[in-house]
Amino acid sequence: MLTGPLARLRSLWRGIGRRDAVESEMNEEFRLHMELRARDLEKSGVPAAEALAQARREFGVAEYHRDDARRSRGLHRVDAIRFSWLDFKLGARMMLKYPGLTLISGLGMAVGIAIAIGWGSVMSVLMQSSLPLPDGDRIVALQNWDTKVDRRAQARAHDFISWRENLTSVRDIGAWRNVSRNLVGADGSAEALTIAEMSASGFRVAGTPAALGRFLLDADELPDAPPVVVIGHDLWKSRFAGDSSIIGRELRFGTRIHTVVGVMPEGFAFPVNHRVWTPLAVDPAARAGEGPTLSVFGKRADGVTLKTARAEIALLGSRAAAASPTTHKDFAAQVQQFALPVAGSDNPDDVTGAWTLRLLTSLILVVICVNVAILIYARTAIRHGEIVVRTALGASRRRVIAQLFAESLVLSLLAAALGLAMAEFALAKGNVILASGGEARPFWMDFRLSWGSVAYAAGLAVLAALITGAIPALRATGTQLRHGLQQLSAGGGSMRLGPMWTALIVAQVAVAVGALPVAVWQAREFVRLGTVDPGIPADEYVSFVVNMERAPENHAALYNDRVIELARRVGAEPGVAAATYASALPGKEKEVLIEVEPSRDSAGAEVAMEYTRFALVAPGFVESFDARPVAGRLFTAADADSSSGVVVVNQAFVRNKFGGGEALGRRIRHVTPRDGYQYSGDVQVGRWYEIVGVIPDFPAPMIPEQNEAKMYQAAVPGAMQPALLSVRLRDAKQGGLEARFRRLAAAIDPTLQVQNVRTLRAIYDADQQLQLLVGLAISLITLSVLMLSAAGIYAMMSLAVTRRQREIAIRAALGGNPRHILVSVFKRASVQLGVGVAIGLVPIAIINVVELRGELTRSPGFVIFVASIIAAVGIFASLGPARRGLRIAPAEALKQE
Amino acid sequence: MTKQAELLPGTLDVLILKAVSLGQLHGYGILLRIEQISGGALQIQQGALYPALYRLEHQGLIDTEWGTSDNNRRAKYYRLTTLGRKRLGVETANWNRLVQAIARSLAATPAEV
User: Fold this and answer.
1) A548 HSE (CA, 13 A, CB side)
2) Taking 50 as the threshold, does the pLDDT of residue A673 lie above it?
3) Residue A251, SS3?
4) Which of A75, A97, A197, A570 could pair covalently with A579 via S-S, beta carbons 3.0-4.6 A apart?
């Protein structure tokens, strides 16, 4: 059935790809034909000398038959747009001949391509569905989806057991959860490790054998099984120097001793980025909604599609909802490709958002290319005479378009190469920022360019060349060409610039004025956030999370005592000025919903709930950042008692909630939405807290659109869990702090873990570098669009006035006042610019009010800056050609006419 | 001597298919075969044969392979494909129907009207 289409494809491929070989075969075939005919003619009595000549006459012109043969296969269409090296050489020459155009267009397209490629690469990593493991595409995650709030709900033991026992389309179903334990050395040293408590089936799913010993087995999960551990290759190398006799050695994790039974090979980190695995024991009698949260995985059975697996688990999910409506009525059970939930790409809305963003990033390139196309069109207009002559000499329209396309392709390919380099730089920077965030990436995630990215860049280069080359070429070789031929014969040869040209100028000015000030403002905002001084000596602070293994009894009280003791001991260390604790570091407070008294305003209307950022802090925490109260007082030790009922707020809070009025003595209470995640009116309210102090705002905001109103409440570590210890150093350049803190913690309690030790500077840097990167990207786009817009407006207006040079010269020749002539030229230019600016001001006014809350009204400099550049460019573009027109000798102008 | 007949437009393709259905042939051989099976009534303009051959090959109706001609030269031989055989059948049936219809029309007498 496919024979016909396949034969056509093969024939086309041979005709295009092996043109020379096919033509040589044709020649050979034709020669044979003529020789055989000559032989027959000879046999019929024609003299040998004449036979071949007659055979050739009868055969006809071989060239025509060859062309007909190509035409019969539809290849003439391809022939018409065949490129020659000369086209590309001409493209390179054009780039050198117009360096300004090359630079502006090339950079603009490179930025557009870099953004499209960069986001495309990030997206392909985030949407990666297959793991780099044997049968990685069959590894799946099993989860509940809370349809009420449209987000993932973590599975619990009951779900896991139900799925493991009932699902047939997914095999080797297992689960894992992160636990944090101290690996305590014989010398008292401690290293906090994240351990995967994982079902033994995880190793079967991953399909990777152990490098030494064995991996976990189902028997290890039994309640009476001896505790065992499997370690990763890098831990084996770094901690045990690659000791081959490690199997059987005992390791102490907190208070429990585990025997090493295996070492996994290098690079193995399943399920996410783990390097230590212990067996996961699950209570088979667990009831729905009880027990620890788990992440469940499995492998699709042979020959089972994702669709089948999804249908089966959905059925189980609906049964669970019917059996346990209290916990499961809103849950839908799902099977997802394993990597998607880990990357946060399992929400259909997020996926749609990502694709929309991908489309938008590609659209940036299209917008840039349209600008470049206008520039190239202006250049093509200058070269119109050359196109007319070529056409007159027999070049087909397709041939001319192909030549102009090839010229643009040279530029766009160069831009694509530069764009790839920019994207690679940004991705490398992104990897560094992610790494500095403290959490290891999932083992399959690596943001880098792939061959797919290169192909995508090549595709974008072709798209760019189509827009920038083929579209101006189509227009330049359209109906105007006949007119050009007539003009050429009459001694003219220039392209007419109609009302379309005026419309383009006005549109270009409107877009520049309408969009660029916002972009400039945004870029400056990101760069400002990325470089702002936090206002506190961030180098002097080190912080870490304090975790503790769950104690069988009195965990909160024990945790409380341990953290207070650790803070005391750390504070007593040499070189440490203060050690205190909080639920969040300055700048990292969580956002909560509150209600400010009175909850009804004077008219009786209910006052809306408001968001504020909030942290539980130790008395003395605020002081350790040198914050002094601007009104009222700070916390005392007694305020940490849960019954104290006092809070301290910052000045932004007073500005936002009380319009800068009196805050002391006002009352606030926490509001918790009953339906989980978002406020919808049904809320649970807490007790009232009184504001007893106001402190300055710190640190300076480093994240865009962050709520800066903050509220602090004094608390003990037990209320925080986990508490963050914040240590102020006397000397910021001290080494070995991490080991010292860990040793102190392990000495208090071997289960007390010191995690994520980082300076406040490193934490802020991670935020700020991201803002800088975004700011840099926006600046680059804005700059290139501004340059392109300016160049486009210059080219269009300059060309428009150049076309009027002869008219200007004649008017001058006929005695026109040069000043009046210049005024008339500028009047036209000013009208075009004025209309463009007026149109552009409409969207910017809307954006200013709706999106930026009047930010541009407060700083009108951005609009003035862009409008001035555009106006100056327009005026300058008109001035040069108009002056040149005036300089043409009157006699010369009249003679030309 | 057989009187020469004008080749109707579109009939060259079906004649080529018929010629190669009788055995694989090179280009010149196809020309001779058509002359032979038409009793010399049909003569093909020599050069016009090749565009038709390439068109049929492009459509997958005939296939080619290189062989040796009877004068011991490398020659390109054409043979019918399965698709070509089906097409020949369809075209032959169409042709026969057309011929019969035209013949019947031309033989009509006033009495039959």
Assistant:
1) 28
2) yes
3) strand
4) A570
Residue A485 pLDDT more than 70?
Answer: no
Q: Is residue A614 scored above 90 in pLDDT?
A: yes
* Alpha carbon distance A234, A254 (integer Å): 21
- Residue B52 in 3-state DSSP? helix
Which residues, other chains included, contact A162 with Cβ-Cβ below 8 Å and sequence gap of 6+? A316, A320
Residue range A782-813, pLDDT digits in tens? 887 778 777 777 777 777 777 777 777 777 77
> Pick from A797, A783, A806: which is nearest to A872 by CA?
A797
pLDDT band with cut points at 50, 70 and 90 for residue A892: low
The two tokens of residue B107 are 């033989």
Name every chain B residue with its beta carbon within 8 A of the beta carbon of A12: 58
Give me the residue label for tokens 């006397």.
A730
Query: Min CA distance, A41 vs chain B (Å)?
Result: 13
How far, in Å, CA of A707 to CA of A727, rounded?
A: 26
A494 Cβ neighbours under 8 A, 6+ residues apart: A381, A384, A385, A484, A487, A803
Interface test with A, best of B13, B16, B26, B28 (most A CBs within 10 A): B28
8 Å CB contact between B15 and B67: no
Judged by DSSP in three states, A45 sits in: coil
Which residues of chain A are within 8 Å of residue B27 when distances are taken between CB atoms? Answer: 29, 32-33
| Per-residue H/E/C for A271-295 | CCCCCEEEECCCCCCCCCCCCCEEE
How would you classify the pairing of strands A610-617 and A293-300?
Answer: unpaired
Residue A415, pLDDT > 80, answer yes
* pLDDT tens digits, A155-188: 999 999 999 999 999 999 999 999 988 898 888 7
CB pairs under 8 A between A and B: 83
Other beta carbons within 10 angstroms of residue A407's beta carbon come to 26
Residue A357: helix, strand or coil by DSSP? helix
Min distance B72 CA to chain A CA atoms (Å): 11
* Residue partners of A183: CB distance under 8 A and separation at least 6: A190, A191, A192, A193, A239, A251, A252, A253, A276
A81 pLDDT more than 70: no
Q: Is A141 exposed, middle or buried, given 0-12, 13-18 or 19+ CB atoms closer than 10 A? A: buried
All residues of chain A having their beta carbon less than 8 Å from the beta carbon of residue B50 are: 26, 29-30, 65, 68-69
For the ranges A543-557, A630-644, A823-837, the lowest mean pLDDT is seen at A823-837
Mean pLDDT of A294-314: 93
Residues 6 or more apart whose Cβ sits within 8 Å of residue A173: A142, A160, A163, A164, A167, A199, A201, A296, A297, A298
Pull the structure tokens for residue A766: 């991670």
Determine what percent of chain A is predicted with pLDDT higher than 90: 34
Taking CB atoms and an 8 Å limit, are A32 and B45 in contact across chains? no
- Half-sphere exposure at residue A499, Cβ-oriented, CA atoms within 13 angstroms: 0
Which value, to the nearest 10 degrees, does the dihedral of the CA atoms of residues A423, A427, A433, A435 take?
Answer: -170
Q: Do B47 and A59 touch (CB under 8 A)?
A: yes
The percentage of residues in chain A with a pLDDT greater than 70, rounded to a whole number, is 92
Residues of A in contact with B47 (CB under 8 A): 59-62, 64-65
Among the partner-chain residues B46, B74, B82, the one whose CB lies closest to the CB of A58 is B46
Q: Which chain B residues are Cβ-neighbours of A73 within 8 angstroms?
A: 54-55, 58
Element (H, E) at A111: helix A99-126
> Is the alpha carbon torsion for A102, A104, A109, A111 positive or negative?
positive
pLDDT, tens only, B21-64: 999 999 999 999 998 998 888 878 887 788 899 889 888 999 99
Pairwise CA distance, residues A686 & A668, whole Å? 9
